[in-house]
Amino acid sequence: MPQVFSNIKIGVFIAAVNFLIQGISFFVQNFIAKNLGHSEYGFFGLLQTDYSIFCSIADFGMSTLILAFFGYRATSGTLFKNVLQLRLICTMTTAVIMAIFAIVARHDHPIFYGELILTFGLLFQHAFFDWYFICGKFWKKLFLSKLLHSISYMTVMGFALLYLKVNKIEYIALAMVIAALPAFFFGVSQAINTSLLRFTRQTIHFVALMLKAGVPYAISGFATFAYIPVGLYVADRFASAEFLSAYNFGHKILILCSGIMVHFISSNLVNQHLSKDKNIHIKEILIFTAFIATCSIPLWLFPSQFLQLFFFAVNWTEDSLSCSAAILRILSFTLLFQAARTSMISGLLKNKAVWTYAIIVSSAGLCNVVACTSAGMLLPNSYIPLFALTGDAVISVFLLVHYLRRGALHW
């Protein structure tokens, strides 16, 4: 029992720290949106999504693997050296890939220079050393790192947005990179010494083994961007800048809400590990989905008020607010799909069916890309957010069929 309370305590702490960062980031988004204006803010959302995808590529599922395979052992000795070298290699390689992507795919796009600047953001991520603090249970250091980043982010972005009135995407991207430096160098001061930069044949062997083991985790991570975020890319390609921006406002709120759902999955996984019951119960799915549906009612009934509340600094027009509200109302149904599949996903992870999970998530994500892109090409723009829910519906059906075939779904 004490271990259970310890797990809950640690989970709540990590969630609270993450929400601190997310809350501050969302607050700053207000003034970014205000300074850029409605059209440019849509492009900025696209830039942030690009950056998130490359962060996922740089991680390549390593954070999960390191925590699962090594735990505290990853914070000292030769293993620590190898793990840190692995993270450095992945990050530097991904930064090069991101720079090439910017030159090839974004050379004539409004976010081109911002994309190039954020390649340095990959190298100096404030969260680069989170795995070290979590594996070593250095909770005070983790908190200090996040607090340092929060203070730095608020100070730098506040100075840039409120005092300098920065209204260019590339300058805002530069400010974000600068804001991450204090937390990054705090991690450097805690974890790095010159001996860690000496790469050996053992390092290459370790990196190869870890990357091979991380493939299903990486695929699962990449596939999540084939769901709701795909609407941003489709809107950028087939819709106006104003519609892209409207989609981005709704997308930001949904990302915030989806972050809460991730913690529900973790909590559900902990509870499943404590139980010997291997079945998934329909009654529990219905109860949890009803709970999330009740919590989501305000998003369906009062989307305009939610947008004005969360983006209080934005100068809304009647057209932009109504368009964003319609998109938010549609996208919010993703929370119901996420709720319905929470226990089923937890069941797969509990049973270490990672490849099954990766295949299901990827297949449904591919369906979403095809459906949403087709809607962008053939239908009015207003259908894009509706078809962006295709992946959520398909993955829920795939999971349901998977458990029905195994006879593991009961009332």
Description:
This protein is mostly helical and 411 residues long. 81% of the residues lie in helices and 1% in strands. The protein contains 17 helices and two strands. The chain has a two-stranded parallel sheet with strand order 1-2. Helix 1 crosses helix 3. The model has no long low-confidence stretch (mean pLDDT 83).
Which features does this protein show?
mainly alpha, two-stranded parallel sheet, 17 helices, 411 residues, globular, 1% strand
Structural class: mainly alpha
Shape: globular
Low-confidence stretches are none
Strand order in the largest sheet: 1-2
Number of strands: 2
Give the SSE order as H and E letters.
HHHHHHHHHHEHHHHHHHE
Q: What amount of the residues lies in strands?
A: under 5%
First and last CA, distance: 28 Å
The biggest sheet amounts to: 2 strands, parallel
- The whole-angstrom Rg is 21 Å
Specify the helix fraction band.
Answer: over 70%
Please give the count of helices.
17
Mean pLDDT: 83
